[in-house]
Amino acid sequence: MWVYSEPGRGTTFKVFLPWVEGTVETVEPGVAPARAVRGSETVLLVEDEKSVRALIRSTLQTHGYTVLEAHHGEHAIQVCAQHADPIHLMVTDVVMPEMSGRELAERLKTSRPNMKVLFMSGYTDKAIVHHGELDPDTAFLQKPFTPDALARKVREVLDSPPGRQGV
């Protein structure tokens, strides 16, 4: 290595590496990342925190989903009653004021028997199960999550066989 420096003018570094003879190994390009998970289904989003709801809505819409929004359980019931077309999935917070996500899912089961449910919470799935809020085999996503994790989980739940959501 060679270093040359002059006050007020700067410093120059030159690095000399030894010449190597031989063949260069070619490296195969890495596997391309999986294509973005997309859908076209209708999703009912129930989240009491406005900023969280906006972020989730934006993520779902970016991935092609039609999103209906509600800020609490009773509002979600009203949205379902006013929407005549199928709602394929409800993404709901577990812990909300007045009505839990599980109670909401139970109440909507009769009017929307084919609607799948994905629960989310800032609590761990073990804590939620331990306190009896959800069954162990329920579709669950722990907050915070990345937009990609949300998109993958939504697609996974939508593609799962009927009756596998544990509600």
Search tags:
20% strand, single chain, alpha/beta, two-stranded antiparallel sheet, 167 residues, 5 helices
Task: Give your account of this protein's structure.
The protein has 167 residues and is an alpha/beta fold. It has a single domain (42-159), classed as Response regulator (Rossmann fold, 3-Layer(aba) Sandwich), CATH 3.40.50. The chain is built from five helices and seven strands. The strands form two sheets. Strands 4-3-5-6-7 form a five-stranded parallel sheet, sandwiched between helices. α1 (50-62) links the parallel β3 (42-46) and β4. The chain is elongated, with a radius of gyration of 25 Å.
**Main beta sheet, described?**
5 strands, parallel
The helix content is 25-40%
Assess the beta-strand content as a share of residues: 15-25%
Domain module tally: 1
What do we call the CATH homologous superfamily?
A: Response regulator
Number of strands: 7
Structural class: alpha/beta
**Distance linking N and C termini:** 68 Å
Tell me what the CATH architecture is.
3-Layer(aba) Sandwich
Low-confidence stretches: none
CATH class: Alpha Beta
Shape: elongated
| Average residue-wise pLDDT | 86
Output the helix-strand order: EEEHEHEHEHEH
